[in-house]
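hey all, quick one before standup. I had two proteins in the batch that finished overnight and I want to keep them in one place so we stop losing track of which output belongs to which input. First protein below, input sequence then structure tokens straight from the run.
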Amino acid sequence: MKIYSFETITSIEDVRQIPSYVPLGEQVVLIPPSFPWIKDQMQDIAISLYNFDLGKIPSLIDGLKTKTAEFISRLADAPEGCPATSSVIENLFQTLHSFVNRPLNQIKDKELLSFTERLSGLIIYSYFKHLKVNVSLLDPSLFVCIGSNSKIDTEKSAECLRTLIQDQDATVSILPARICKNGLEETILMPAKLRTLYATHIATLFHAEELTFYTTKQMSSASPDEDVCSQFKDYTITYNEAKSIINAGFNLVPKACLDLAGQHGINLRISNYYNPNKQTITITKTSTMNQIKAVVTRKNADYLQIHSSGNLMPFQFLTKVMAVCGDFKTPIHLISSSSVNISMAVELSSETFHQMENQLSQFASVSVEKDISVIHIIGQFDQEKENVEVKVIDLLKDIPILMISYGSDNNSVSVVVSKDMGEKAQAILMDNFAGQDFMKRNVAPRFREAYSAMSI
């Protein structure tokens, strides 16, 4: 069993491509994209309810129904749309009319907004029906159960699912995203930010061996040239390597998804929807020793040096510094220390730094270098045999290294350099470890976000 989860897709042409990404010869579950135009119109309905503008709601629902019919007709390239699902669509809109006519104190916002996902799923279901695919439409509110801890109750959900699909013979099952039921049997909608985690839970319930996320976001900050992008094909990393990449600041997948997939042995694939053959990352338990997989750079961090004034014992000095960092909830990326000195790569606002400095100055002197680059070399290697840190120091012999960290695991070596040397250092490391000849091509890695970048 394989699961395929799609991000927001807007155009007719993009929706028509979905079947080509799903192997129709085997059983799969497809978590469809959410359509923004449906979400916008459902929000208009919710606002009208909130403002007690009840007379406006029937026309809003009818307008949504008309637009849905037009969208399906264009999608199927047939004026009549998909006759096989017209009754199902009609039933959904009748249900929506009935729902908004309840007493206002019985209308739950999350249940109302779940119609966005239901209708999005129904559109994809209609298109697959039009293509004569053996497809079914599952209702997640019948089996995805939220427990008392506000998390998906895997055991109860699995039991409900077994009952639901025991006679299921469809090749493709369409499962609308984020829909659950709580302990009161009410339909609720998980937050949009948990969509990826929701898909991972679905993969565990179906005992899937693989979960593919099709994203519409650019997946790398490397050179956009075609020959560099082609190096993404069949790119594979382990769960531990993925954790190191996430810890380094690159938002690959949420950590909770990675942990859940690892516990159940589910391979995760993150694929660019518009270029799946050339931009796909697979996360698996299969180890590929002695390979450097990524060079991840976090920029705009600060290099903090704290020197003891000597009036505290070493253990007191270390304890007090950590206590101050804890009080200000300081994000610490790297740290090195001796009995009288601590160096850290952190993220601090100017205001927070001055407040910390006031406390630290009671027992230490403090200096800061702003906007440094923290570079992580990530892979699977034997620290004792590979001596990656020696290679890094040698490669960066002409670049002042402020800090270096290694040996805590077999997945990363990290260095800190000044801001003006960050891109040069990353390019040198990429050339030698990842085989991308940035220096000779005169192409520097582009920093993707304000705080992080990734090149593979």
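OK second protein, same deal, sequence then tokens:
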Amino acid sequence: MRNKAQEKLNSILAEIEILEQSEVVALDRVNRTLIRSPVNGIVQRVLA
């Protein structure tokens, strides 16, 4: 019973670690997609 609980805890902790890494990647993607103007004003167009 105790071993089974420990295995389940380890599994959940591993899943949490994976989700935390996914969160970091997602936040990085969001931060890189923000468009910031070099000066105060409005972005008229974006050249790709």
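Flagging for whoever picks this up: The chain has a mean pLDDT of 89. The two ends are 59 Å apart (CA to CA).
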